[in-house]
Design the sequence.
């Protein structure tokens, strides 16, 4: 059953992408594209609610009707009505670490061995502390660069593909969406829908999908066993060592600055060892 389920999911994803390339404007389809762990599910839920259209998650068949499609695809110039959500890559790295560790924990609870358990043990040592991201993030970063999973490219490659001067792509930042959810929804949705979003509707949608409403926790109250771990921006400062920061700066510093994040040259060297 697992193999059948996975094959159906792949059919749904690839079929929907093909439909979008050639018929997306006729349906129409709206796309929420992101690098993984950037908040795309949250944004997709809100756009679908504001427009009152479906948000099919993990469809087993191609989506051939008006809907919001959430994905991690690389840039494709044939897609229209794209909302590209970008998040500070340092926070993405931290969220990705805890996401991967949650996958390991779930496998253990089921009595299964995760396919990457041995890889991580070789990287971080047998019996490594999954809660201690600070000690392992530098090696984790390099491993993800060499062997990307899910998106199949690095954060920087994905962002550079989508985020700068692309037609039919509306870019927004996760941090701005957190700071003024209703305002960002009211700004971006008309750019693709062609009609204004009423301020009251924007506020109602934003309130419906707050972190507290969806998790029962205040933003910042962490649950590492949850898909929605913490719901804040800037958590990377609690987990980055200077080594991790220097490696991140080497690979992605220019991209951080192009996106307007606070990463003035020398920022990595100011972190504690």
Sequence:
């Amino acid at each position: 059953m697992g193999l059948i389920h996975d094959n159906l999911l792949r059919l749904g994803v690839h079929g929907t992408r093909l439909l979008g390339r050639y018929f997306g404007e006729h349906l129409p389809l709206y796309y929420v594209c992101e690098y993984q762990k950037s908040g795309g599910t949250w944004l997709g839920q809100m756009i679908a609610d504001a427009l009152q259209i479906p948000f099919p998650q993990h469809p087993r068949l191609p989506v051939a009707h008006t809907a919001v499609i959430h994905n991690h695809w690389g840039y494709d110039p044939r897609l229209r009505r794209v909302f590209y959500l970008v998040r500070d890559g340092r926070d993405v790295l931290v969220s990705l670490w805890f996401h991967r560790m949650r996958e390991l924990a779930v496998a253990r609870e089921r009595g299964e061995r995760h396919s990457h358990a041995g890889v991580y043990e070789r990287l971080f040592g047998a019996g490594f502390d999954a809660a201690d991201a600070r000690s392992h993030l530098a090696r984790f970063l390099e491993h993800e660069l060499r062997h990307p999973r899910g998106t199949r490219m690095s954060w920087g490659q994905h962002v550079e593909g989508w985020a700068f001067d692309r037609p039919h792509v509306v870019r927004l930042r996760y941090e701005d969406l957190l700071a003024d959810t209703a305002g960002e929804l009211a700004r971006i949705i008309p750019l693709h829908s062609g009609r204004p979003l009423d301020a009251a509707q924007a506020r109602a949608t934003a309130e419906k999908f707050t972190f507290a409403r969806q998790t029962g926790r205040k933003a910042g109250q962490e649950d590492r066993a949850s898909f929605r771990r913490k719901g804040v921006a800037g958590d990377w400062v609690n987990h980055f060592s200077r080594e991790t920061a220097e490696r991140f700066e080497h690979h992605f510093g220019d991209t951080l600055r192009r996106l307007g994040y606070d990463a003035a040259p020398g920022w990595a060297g100011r972190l504690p060892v």
Notes: The radius of gyration is 19 Å. The chain has eleven helices and four strands.
